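User: Second chain of the day. Same drill as before.
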Amino acid sequence: MYKLFLIPILIFVKDSSANEIEAIAGSSCKLMSASEATSIQFKETGLTNADPDATTTITCPLTINSQHADYDRNQTLQNVRLIAQSISDQQAIMDCSLSEYMDQDAQNSYAQKIAIEPGDSAVLTWNEIRISSDSSIFSIQCSLPSDIVITSLWIDTKKDKTDYCGEADTAHMTMALRSDNSKVSESTGAAFTLKLLKNTDENQFSNLGYECNECSFEQFDAIIPPPGWSKSPKQLILPNGEVECPLRVDGVPSTLDFIPEIPGDEFELIAKQLDGELIEMSSDVLMIKATVMRNTRLRFPSGNRVHELTDTKGDAYVLFAYEVESIDFDRSYFENIEAMSNYPYPLGWSYSTRILDEELVLDSAGVVTVLSIRADHSTVWEKR
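Assistant: Same format as last time:
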């Protein structure tokens, strides 16, 4: 018996605007045929095909929230992703179609098929899908093999930045991540990341990440996390970067106050970890590959050294965060060709370092894949 977990579906509407993200439970998906009703189970984690011998056809409606989408400005689905992960010892085949309907009539359909290797994850992607009308309705139909669980759908639409980002404090909309050795005094600013994590109980890896740019290391160290919360290691941010727009999740506060002596809410919602995959674990090292929702752009300047890990498929992950104990840490350390040569990384992966001959930009577009390594000094690497 094998299990596949169909984790988030993400939609991005093409526009020069910011992301507005809505989460929908996987249990909102429906059967295409009543005769297959006995094969479907609705659990707290989502919708499951419990028939060990047959696939089941389901449909998941993708409704664009009219409060956040404007047909006059948004006429393209920039990107639709369906992410699947296998914990099986067998290969599985996934068939899905993204379809557009008007007045219950199918207008366009875009089929995708992917082979999912044992224990691996895979992504079905649709790009640049035109919205034919303001009355268009989209849905994804899938043939689900046995023991697939659809846990959630994530709809990311965009509206004009003046509507969305203008509501937020401008100081929170852009973070200039320092790439020089300038001295940081009291607060850490955006040269470091100090985060509190709140478990969401959607799966064993899911959490909300709140970051404080006004906190000193001493203030952060003094925080005692409430039940259900934990501290992320204090980390130096290597690249320059921008928070393109504040992250907003329905039913979740965007800011929180944990330090009374700092006026207002000093912690801001910066990321949501959607799911993860345990890569390696030992007594002194923990390696997790995770899917993270955030609205960021990281810039590694030309002429700087970057450190990269390459997985068994050839996908490269760039080091962007490194654990430190002091704000006085000399970031020129990472210009040393030997800086990360002895750092642990997953079995079968390879390490390399190079000097950039042009700027390297990592744009999250709403969601990123990262590798988190907890060791003597924890690190985070973003897939490019």
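DSSP finds three helices and 29 strands in the chain.

User: Great, on to the next one.
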